[in-house]
Amino acid sequence: MCYVRAVPTAKRPEAKVTRSGTVAIVGRPNVGKSTLLNAALAVDLAIVSETPQTTRENLLGVLHRTLSDGTLAELLLLDTPGLHEGKTTLNKRMNRVAKQASAAADVVIMTTEVPKEARRELLPYGPDVALVRQLAQDAKVVLVVNKIDRLKDKTQLFTLIGGWTKVREFEAVVPTSALKKDGVEPILEEVGRLLPEAAHQHGVDDLTDRPSRFFAAQFVREQVLKRAWEEVPHATTVSIEEFEEHGKGVRISATVHVERDGQKKILIGEKGSMLKQIGTDARKRIADLIGVPVHLELFVRTTPGWRDNASLLDELGYAEGASLHDRAAAAPRKPARKHK
Ligand code: GDP
Ligand code: MG
Known about the structure:
Layout: E1 18-27, H1 33-41, E2 59-66, E3 72-79, H2 89-104, E4 107-113, H3 126-134, E5 141-146, H4 156-165, E6 172-175, H5 184-194, E7 206-211, H6 212-227, H7 232-235, E8 237-246, E9 249-258, H8 261-268, H9 273-290, E10 294-302, H10 310-316, H11 324-329, E11 335-337
Parallel strand pairs: 1-3, 1-4, 4-5, 5-6, 9-10
Antiparallel strand pairs: 2-3, 7-11, 8-9
């Protein structure tokens, strides 16, 4: 049999369908949202710690993926602060930022976790159920059940997932271990196919819309979170005084703000040893992300009540409900890009 084609296929490539949209990663503090973002991007962009409320602002991670049907999907993944009860002005801003992100997103990744000491019969956790009920009825929600590495017997997931499907209709329920990078691909596939058909907004090398100096501040705070306990992590924030490119490297000067002199003493440590360690490890992390040598100078300052001082919060960059797009439209900045 002979087929006649007007134009040989090789000369007429099929136009690929492209999808693009925002994907808000929401859930309680500490369920592993930031770990999931990092696993999806294969870059440690977001800071992760055992301390709840590590993430204080939305963080965009841009991901391009070819889906199994050949569609080119652009996932604008938005890591959000965990939704939590909290009374300071900072806490209220964090909750508002997370709620706005889920309301505006094309797809919501609602993250829940397997509890540390899993009982035989696992059921959806009450506070997570309450969060799911707050999501819009017509929202497209993918439920991620994270930390499945905690389960010796994976059949326990059946009752847990069965319980969740009674709470609301999900587009998909995906068991995952973000920490072990297990089950992350199926989430991206599920989410990608739910995005609207649209042209891509970012180049393939784009990683985020935040400038490098934002990550410099985050990575210094991350090192504080790794070493300080009790109220110190919550009382700490970091501002960048100087971020200067010179030759092949960057010179950064940063201030670690705490609320009390006692906290300042803890962070400086014996003969400055703690601050030195924080600086050494943060410097490495910043250099890894931006791909050039970094010189980092750190100071510690007592700034009483910064968490409840609206104008200080503005100054420190904690936006009052500024959306992703407001931010993108703000002052020109040099976003962090992938480097090889
Ligand atoms: P977030 O507050 O939701 O962003 O949570 P993080 O990503 O900061 O993670 C909180 C803690 O949970 C950290 O100590 C992570 O290492 C840990 N974690 C995240 N994902 C997993 C996982 O899949 N399994 C286990 N066992 N721990 C995880
Ligand atoms: Mg986080």
